[in-house]
Amino acid sequence: MSDITLDTAAAKVPKAAPRTPPASQIGLPAWLRANLFSSWINTAVTLVVAYFLVRWAIGFVEWGIVNAVWSVPDNQTQACRDLRGIGACWAVITEKHRFILFGTYPYEEHWRPALCVLLFVGLYIVSAMRRFWRKELALVWIGVLTLIGVLMWGGVAGLTYVPQERWGGLVITLILATFGLAFAFPLAIVVALGRRSSLPAIKALCVLYVELIRGVPLISLLFMASVMFPLFLPEGMNIDKLLRAQLAIILFAGAYLAEVVRGGLQSLSKGQYEAADALGLSYWQKTGFIILPQALRMVIPPLVNTFIGFFKDTSLVLIIGIFDLLTAGKTAIIEPAWQGFGIEVYLTVGAIYFVFCFAMSKYSQGLEAELNRHRAR
Amino acid sequence: MSQTTIDPRSLRAPPRRPLRLSWSDERVRAIVWQVLVVGVIGAIVWWLWSNTVHNLEVRRIATGFGFLGREAGLPIAESLIEYSPTDTYLRALTVGLLNTLKVAVVGIVLATILGTVIGIARLSKNWLLAKIAAVYVEVIRDLPLLLQLLFWYALLQGLPGPRQALNPVQGVFLSNRGLKLPWIEWQDAHSFALIAFLLGAAGTWLYRRAAIAKRMQDGRPRAVWPVAVGAMLVLPVAVWAALGAPWVVDWPALRGFNFRGGLNMSPEYFALLLGLTLYTAGFIAEIVRAGILAVPGGQWEAAQALGLHPGQVLRQIVLPQALRVIVPPMTSQYLNITKNSSLAVAIGYQDIVSIANTTLNQTGQAIEGIAIIMLVYLTISLSISFFMNWYNARIALVER
């Protein structure tokens, strides 16, 4: 009844067209006022920041584009030297980009590392898509990594053999990062499980490994790999330098990833463990079918963040003289003609690192939002 | 419910069965697995160890730390204690350790300040400021630290020489020889004033404790600030004035080809400090932001409803809760700065890694050299994490 009276009352009110909010409350002016000029102190901050930003941007554009030198005829860098501090010398990139990307790999064979880089990127993209998250993905990884090995070394199927000492540049960075993670990840799972194990000896070993590795800088492990490994092996047996550095990176990454995985194992509710026990599953059945699938899913975002860290950390191999992207950049400007153009080279190399890391970071943020969607209201 | 209730489950612990020698007994399985794993790892370690001993014999490398007493003969550009190349390796390594600590401690302080500012800026209502802080954090965290260090070092090397040094503020010179700052001439009076300040700080802390304890008894608040000002400001100034108030500013000035006087930061140290600070500040900013966001808005409102003024709300309600979220990840950032300072070797700043590396190249004592590096970092890491764990336990939420 009350509904009816309300309805009739509403009907008596004369209809008016919906009014738009006052002009000062919508659109650009309102946004500007709310976000940039809401109070005098806010206005002052905006003006000061904008002033410095514009000044810096103008300076950068003048240096990087307007006054820049884009190419010079055969290593005659005088034009660049005259503009030191006024204009950038992008000619160093024009001249050296093949060297920075591929190192000392034979020039005619540069398509091989280039193809490897594409394969790596493709592998990352496929692994990032949730619809491919199944067991077959491991086979894809094995297949692609083998193919990359064949392409880089050659010696079969009409490809000329290229010794490992001549590899260099971006592909080394990707090899160190990808192979490092491919081996460190299973190691990390085993260590994380071991650290939560009820067997005291195994737990102690895992704790010792993780804490020891996490307490020392990566450099000391790389030094160890480069100067101490040869002492560890029997006489006459030798592993090449890249493999030794790779081993150090695997050991290092394993300890950090193990802690991330352990976080996932700990955040799983106790009921999951008990329910699995109650079903009569063995330890490995319980771990493989119940615990790990849930725990790993939970830690994917922090795992990706750790991956970003390792991708950046592979650059440390520069210190023991392995020819990765950063070393190639640093070596490119050793030649007297090109000395002193470090800024340009490091900006370019930095842009390459940035593209990879930024993509991973955005992916991790998106994934986190997606995996947490059921929690958001 | 009475206090004497006993959880009945605790009375029904399963009786200990005698150990059966069968694969179906899980305790037997546990022992077998452990023996197996420890045995395999022990065998690998023993194999590596015996190889090493054999290799050392073949190469005629003497083991042991006897080389530490020998003359180092390696020049070190900057040092906090007196050092000459005729000193021993031990002294050289000590210099390296002090150089590591010098960059790590200063880096931790600067990165904390800068990171906090950027973290708060990212939460600012000012859109421009928040965006700039966000872009800074994204970019700096996505570039390798080593690359950033090389970049800053290259930038410093590209600066003009001392004669055309940049001079943004009077007395501050930036050139390819590093950064020069004015500094006061340190005299005994300053040391005594510093001691007075430290004593005053300790006294203030004791007074504050006593004041809080008394307030707990009678409920009357006691102002701490007059004591703080007296003990930490007036007392040191009085000590300094009583000793003649020496105040001589040491301005850097160009003499010949380089600067003399003032506080001198070598380009290597400056690039390392700059790189470490800017890089770590990006991470600290995110930690601070997360910590502040972790305190629900209701806490602010509830505290204001209780009649606390904004300063009290921040100090007594919000910060203690935010710190709980901030401290554990901050600890790992402090550890990271310390460990990352080892990248100094790439730009030629002589920290412990750089000097130990030179030492092991000169003496061939690879194992000892690396053992020293690892031991130093493990000690530093463990001390920082012990301290931060202690601090964390102090501020942690005490539940019933």
What is the residue-averaged pLDDT of chain B? Answer: 83
Q: Sheet bearing the most strands of chain B, described?
A: 3 strands, antiparallel
| CATH fold-level topology of the largest domain in chain B | MetI-like fold
The CATH superfamily title of the domain at 170-322 in chain A: MetI-like
Number of strands of chain B: 7
Query: Helix coverage percent of residues of chain A?
Result: 55-70%
Distance between the termini of chain A: 36 Å
- Tally of individual helices of chain A: 16
Largest sheet of chain A: none
How many domains would you count in the coordinates of chain B? 2
The coarse overall form of chain B would be: globular
Largest interface: A-B, 56 and 57 residues
Distance, first to last CA of chain B = 18 Å
Shape of chain A: flat
Unreliable stretches of chain B (pLDDT < 50, length at least 5) are: none
Order of helices and strands of chain A: HHHHHHHHHHHHHHHH
Structure description:
The complex is a heterodimer of chains A (377) and B (400). Chain A has 377 residues and is mainly alpha-helical. Chain A contains 16 helices and no strands. In chain A, helix 6 packs antiparallel against helix 7, helix 9 packs across helix 11 and helix 15 packs antiparallel against helix 16. The longest helix of chain A is centred in the last third of the chain and has 30 residues. By secondary structure, chain B is mainly alpha-helical. Helix content of chain B is 66%, strand content 5%. Chain B has 13 helices and 7 strands. In chain B, the strands form 3 sheets. In chain B, strands 1-2-7 form a 3-stranded antiparallel sheet. In chain B, strands 3-4 form a two-stranded antiparallel ribbon. A two-stranded antiparallel sheet of chain B has the order 5-6. The longest helix of chain B is centred in the N-terminal third of the chain and has 34 residues. The two termini of chain B are 18 Å apart. At the A-B interface, helix 3, helix 9, helix 10, helix 14 and helix 16 of A face helix 2, helix 4, helix 5, helix 12 and helix 13 of B.
